[in-house]
Amino acid sequence: MTIPFSFELQACQDRARAGVFHTPHGDVLTPVFAPVGTQATVKAVTPTQLQELGASLILSNTYHLYLRPGDELVSDMGGLHLFMNWTGPILTDSGGFQVFSLADTRTIDDDGVTFKSHIDGSMHRFTPEKSIAVQENLGADIIMAFDECAPPTDRAYNERALARTHAWAERCFRVKARTDQALFGIVQGGIFLDLRKNSAEYIASLGFPGHAIGGLSVGETKAEMHAALDIVDLTLPNDKPRYLMGVGTPEDIINCVLRGVDMFDCVLPTRLARHHAALTRTGRLNLINATYTHDIHPIDEGCFCYTCQHFSRAYIRHLIMAKEMLSATLLSIHNIYTLIHLTDDLRQVILDNKLDGFVSNFFEEKARVANTDQSKTI
Amino acid sequence: MTIPFSFELQACQDRARAGVFHTPHGDVLTPVFAPVGTQATVKAVTPTQLQELGASLILSNTYHLYLRPGDELVSDMGGLHLFMNWTGPILTDSGGFQVFSLADTRTIDDDGVTFKSHIDGSMHRFTPEKSIAVQENLGADIIMAFDECAPPTDRAYNERALARTHAWAERCFRVKARTDQALFGIVQGGIFLDLRKNSAEYIASLGFPGHAIGGLSVGETKAEMHAALDIVDLTLPNDKPRYLMGVGTPEDIINCVLRGVDMFDCVLPTRLARHHAALTRTGRLNLINATYTHDIHPIDEGCFCYTCQHFSRAYIRHLIMAKEMLSATLLSIHNIYTLIHLTDDLRQVILDNKLDGFVSNFFEEKARVANTDQSKTI
C-alpha cells in the first residue's frame, strides 16, 4: 500500500524551498502556480491547452460548484477530474472565502454560515461538516478546512474569527473520511503577528498534511503581508507544503517564495486576459491600445508559449477590437504560462542555489523596463 | 516552374466527384467543407484545434477584413496566412454578398456599390477592381469575383443583376495580377434555369480556374436549389472545381455532392455552437435542455472529435448554464468536425464506388432517429 500524499523538500535556499508533493493524480513540483477553474473550467482554455502550457495543479471553487451544477451531480459523473477532464491534481477551496465575500447576505454563527445564492437568491447553509461533504463529493486531491476570512486590520473581529476558524478546522479534521484527499488547515489572523503565530501553532498542532495561509492579499499593505508571512514561516513545520491563497502577481510570487511559500493560486492571469491585458515579468501590456495596431512582435519576445510563438500583438489587438473570443483564449494561455514558468524557474534556481541572482535580475529588469517603456504598464 | 493551381478529378460516381485542388498552401481534397473565419478567426477555436480536427481549407470574409483591421494592415503583417497563423489554404469571398445583405444602406450602379460600414457608419465603395485589390492584399489562395447576389425569385431583378455580375466577372478576370491566387468566377441567376444556364456558360467561357455557385440557399426551396444545381452541373466544365457558397447542413451537403459540387462553406457549425446546439448526422441536440443535466454520454457516441472523446453532455450543459466560453469552443470543435468528416466520408465512398449505399444509409438513419428520439431535434 502506498501513502497517497507525501511532501519531500528537495532544496532550500535561505527560506525559499523546492519540493515535490505527491498526490493520487500526480506529483506537484513546488513552487507551483495553480490556475483557477472556478466553475470546473479554467476560463477560455481547454484541459489540453492547460496541460501543454505546463499546468500541473488547478484550483476549483466549492461555493460555485455546490450551487451549480451541484456537488452530487459532479459525484454522479465520477468526480471533478472526470467531469472536467483534468487528469492532474486538483485543489478545492472550502467555500468560506466566497460565502463571506460574494454572497448578498449571510448570517454567521459558531456552527456555520447561512447565505444566499448569487445565482437564484435561494438560501443555503455551510458548516465545516457540510464543506467537507461537498469537497468529498467533488473529489479534488487537496481540500481545504472551512474558515472565516476576516477584514485584515480589524483586531477584535480577527480574534473572534480566529477562534471560530480554529474550532472549525478541528471539526473538518475529525469529519473528513476519504483517504485519497489531503485536507489542509488554514492559518488566519489578519495583519496581527501574535494572532498569526497563535494560528500557525494551533493549526500545525492538528496534524494536517499541508497548511494554507488565508486572509492575505485582501487589502493590507505589502509590508503587512510580508510580516505576516515571516511569522507564519517561522512557526509552521518545514516538512509540510505551504499554500498562500489568492496570490498573485509575478513580484508577489517571488516575494512570497522568498518567505517560504510553496503553492499559489490566483484568477489574475485569466481575469486580465478577459480585460485585454497581457502579463509579462516586467509589466503588463493592454493590447487594446492603438499603439499595438501595427505591432508585428509577439507579446513577449522571450516567451515560448503557444500565443507568443504564433501570433502578433497586432493580431491579438484585432481580435479584441472585433470582440472575438479567441483573444481571451490566446491571452489566457500566455498569462498562465507566464506565471507557471516563473514558478518553474524559481524552482530551478532554488535547486541550483542561484536564487539571489535570479531575484535581483528580475527586479532590476522590471525597474529598467518601467523607466524606459511606459507603454508596458497599464 | 510549377503551376500553382490545378484540379485533378480522381473519381466520379454518377455526378458526384472526388478530386484534389492543388494550392500554394497545400492540397484541398474534395468534396471539402471549409469552416468560416469571418474576422480572420474561426470563432472560438485556435488554428491548432482546427488543424487537429481535420480542416484543410478555411474561408474568410473580405468585407469584414477590409473594414477591420483593414486589408493593408493584413498585407503589412505578411498576409492573412501569417496574420491569423493558418498555414493551409484560405479562400476569401468578394465582399459582394455582405455589401448587399448586411450594409445598412447601399447604392448600386453599373460600376460598383457604395455602402455604409456596419461598424462606424462610414461610407465606402467596392468595385470589381477594388474587391480584387483588397483580396490581393489579404492574400488568400482562392479569391472570388465581385458579383451581385439578387433575391432568388425576382426574375427582372435577376436579369439586371446577372448582366452586371457577368460584366464584373470579366473586369475581375482582367485586373487580377497575383499569380499565386486562383480567381473563381461566380454563377448567378436565382431560381431561373435559363438564367443559370446562361450564367454558367458565360462564366465558364472566361477561363477561370474554378467556379463558384452563388445566390442559392438564400430562401428558395430545396427543389429550386437542386434544379438550379442540376442545370449548372450540366453546363460547367468537368475539369474545374465547383464551390457552392454558404451551404450547409449535412443533408444539403450530401444532396449537393450528388449534384456535382466539390466545395462548401457555412457559418452553421460555429453559429450553432454559440447557440448551444450540437450537429450530428442524424439531427441536432440543444445542450441547454434540462434532459442533458445528468447525461454522462458524449454528444455523439460514434464521434472521434476532441469534445466527444473527453466530455459528457452533462459537462457541456453545465458550461452553457454557467456561461463559460469553453462551451462554444467544445461545440464548435464537434460541429466543424462533423461536417468535415462527412465530406471526408463522402470522398472515400466516391473513391470506393460505394456512394449509393452510404447515402441511403444516411437518410434511413436520419429518419429512424427522427421517429424514435424527438429529443434529438431542436
Structural features, described:
- The structure is a homodimer of 378-residue chains.
- In chain A, helix 7 packs parallel to helix 8.
- Chain A is α/β, with parallel strands linked by helices and 378 residues long.
- Chain A is globular.
- Chain A is 43% helix and 19% strand.
- Chain A contains 15 helices and 16 strands.
- In chain A, the strands form 5 sheets. A 6-stranded parallel β-sheet of chain A has the order 4-14-13-12-11-10. A 3-stranded antiparallel β-sheet of chain A has the order 1-2-3. Chain A has a 3-stranded antiparallel β-sheet with strand order 7-8-9.
- The longest helix of chain A is centred in the C-terminal third of the chain and has 26 residues.
- The mean pLDDT of chain A is 95.
List keywords for this structure.
homodimer, 378 residues, alpha/beta, 6-stranded parallel sheet, globular
Percent helix among the residues of chain A? 40-55%
Total strand count of chain A, please?
16
- What's the arrangement of strands in the largest beta sheet of chain A? 4-14-13-12-11-10
Spans of at least 5 consecutive residues with low confidence of chain A = none
Largest sheet of chain A: 6 strands, parallel
Biggest interface between chains: A-B, 40 and 40 residues
What is the global morphology of chain A?
globular
Could you give the distance between the termini of chain A?
53 Å
* Number of contiguous helices of chain A: 15
